[in-house]
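ok so for the tutorial part 2 we go from a plain amino acid sequence to predicted structure tokens. step 1 is just haveing the sequence, like this:
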Amino acid sequence: MPVFLVESPLPPVNAEMASLIPQHREVVNELFAEGKLVSYAVAADLSKWWCCVQAKNEFEVMEILGQMPLIPFLKPEIHDLMFYNGADQLMPRISLN
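step 2 — the prediction. this is what the tokens look like for a chain of 97 residues:
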């Protein structure tokens, strides 16, 4: 399935945004568990946000992003990637069965 890189500048964090961070992190963890989110990062100076989303198309990416409580504060720019490689792809997933 295609992977899309999503990036956005981050506005200064206000009280409303700060109150949504715990719920936002919970949704991010759920999206990782569902295999929809491949990576997630925030710049140390809180100026920029990135994530890689596994989806069929940009419309599906926007549906996935729409689940994130902080998305109304962001201006996501979506980039369709030719390929995506990560260190986690080097080792097979361990099955506990």
